[in-house]
Amino acid sequence: MPLPRTRWILFLLPLLLAIAAIASAWQLSWQWALQGEVVRTAKQLSLHAQSIDNALGQFRYIALEAANNEQVQQLLHAPSSARSNRANRSLELYSRQAGSSTIFVLDAQGQVVASSNWSSSDSLVGQSYRDRPYFQQSLEGQASSFYAAATEGEQADYYFAYPIRSGEQLIGAAVVRIDLTPLQEQWGENDSELMISDGYGVVVLASRPQWRYRYLYPLFDSTLQLLRNQRIYGDRQLRPFHAKVSRLDGGSDRFQLELADSSAEFLRQSFHLPQLNWTIHYLASLTPVYGFANRVASSALIGILLLALVAALVRERRLKRASRAQARNLLEQSGKRQQAIINNTNVGLMLLSAEGEIRFLNPQSHRILGLGESSRQTLHFNQLIPEPRWEQAVAVGPETAPTATVREQPLHSTETWVSREDGSRVPLAISISAIDLQPDASYLVTLVDISRRKAAEEQLQGAKALLEQRVEERTRELQEAQQELIQASKLAALGEMSTSIAHEFNQPLTAMRTYLASSELLLKQGDSARLEDNLRLLRELTERTSTIATQLKTYAYNRPTERNPVNLVNALQQVLPMFRQSFEQRGVKLSIRAPEEPLLVAADSGRIQLVLTNLIKNALESMAHCDQPELLCEFVRQRQQATIHINDNGGGIEARHLNRLFEPFFTTKSIGEGLGLGLSIVAGFIRDLDGSIDARNNDNGGATFSIQLPLYDARTQDASIETHHTG
Q: pTM for the whole thing?
């Protein structure tokens, strides 16, 4: 029965109040924890920014000191081996004192003339750096700094360069190269989430290696191309950061990162280092903030639920007592049902110990094995079933028998023959499985009498042998009949073709002989008017004979070796003038449906025009007795194919003729009206162009011929586009 409205209100009101209290507690605790995290991250960011600025700032003065070094000045004024050695040792001493990676000096041509690593295998002496941006800026008299990533590996270097002057003349540059890898490793040791982006917004250093060389802000294609040309980041492919950023109070923002290998939400605070033109970003995970808010909300929820839990416990105790009583009744009923199933099943069941001693046999086992009073005594598996042997079937001994394990698959399944006490033999299917019956290991053996199946298999084997023999004999007979049918079909086709061709040629030839004889008489009589009519009829007969010969030649025509792009709509426009007079005389309503974009196919225009001509001609013949003939030419683009539908409302096609329309020399016309090659030629042309054609009757009368041709693809077919006059 539904609760009254008042009771529903009394139930829902406390629930809504509890939800509102929990939501408010979560929101307030989240804001409080977030503010604390903002203060903490701001302090950490300031410390890291000062540490980075101090760590790199000291090397800026090393470049200045190296530029003013007396040995370096002397070497650049008058190079010599002795001065080079003194300059190398001096730079080596600077490097040891400053802890920098390398200090080297470039002459005015950008070649290294002295280096702190002059004695090592990877000495820079003799190498040229004239194309480096820091050297170009030094030639302009400017002190510069520059970041560059190693071409291979994860090393990243930062360069400070200072010009070396002799009076007003620039004679070289002093460069300090600092390896930034230890700084990045220090972040990982401190478990800090830090990253540094350069002036382009590209992350050059990060506590997580997968964050490096990603840009935080969108970059134009021209900027990306410029960075690739300068090779600041080596040959690495720059990728964007997939992150959602939302501003928070206090100059921080929520940074929700979504990468292929990670997804996390951070509180981000940033600080710009103007001297390095870098921006340092400190990211603190918001997981603790959410965790604190969730804990507060959970505590509120727990407090609300405690009262409900007390009431539920009281009710649960009552239900548990009733459930135990019901479970005991169900267990007793289940035991009775299982015993009834075991006693009445058609499968024999045996329960055995790990040693193979039989502990239980169901009645069906007694019937299958034909056991008598001896079954009351303790028996062993091998006494009743000689094969397989028990030790081989389970492959375990008492000391290694499985315990407390239920096997999903049987240990052993086989078929065997068993001798009964009365001397008869019965075939059995046996399956042995381990079951969990503590404390001892036990095995369940199922026995199935397969006497009927064995008898059926013997009958089936005999029937199979007899059937194979009959099939072999029938196959020989069919092969012989097939050869005779093939030969007869060849002769019938040759006779049909010869008859059609002979009749097609004989009819115009007979008419021509008649008109020639008549023309001789008219010539003697001087009747020029009738003589001209005879000559016109003779010309038409010769043209008809030529058309028949052309069809036969076209039928044997080879497929084209070159294909060009053909505009299907333009090809139709080229064909339509041939039928303009027929359309006007018969009152044909012509409709054309085509897409706005050109529909180009890979073909040759002559064949396409011939195909369209044949199909339109057939449509006109089909509509010869139609009161209001209508012809629809529809062009459709479907993925990589173009489809042409020629639709008429004529008499249609008989169902028995649909499957033979495109066979050579097949025609529904009377003898003398056609060879039956038109549609066969059309089908051959379409196949040569890797297309297809089919015909069907329309639901409202008439027929539709559909052609599918592959669209022209300029990437795979190199040909000039053929243009047509659309007139």
A: 0.39
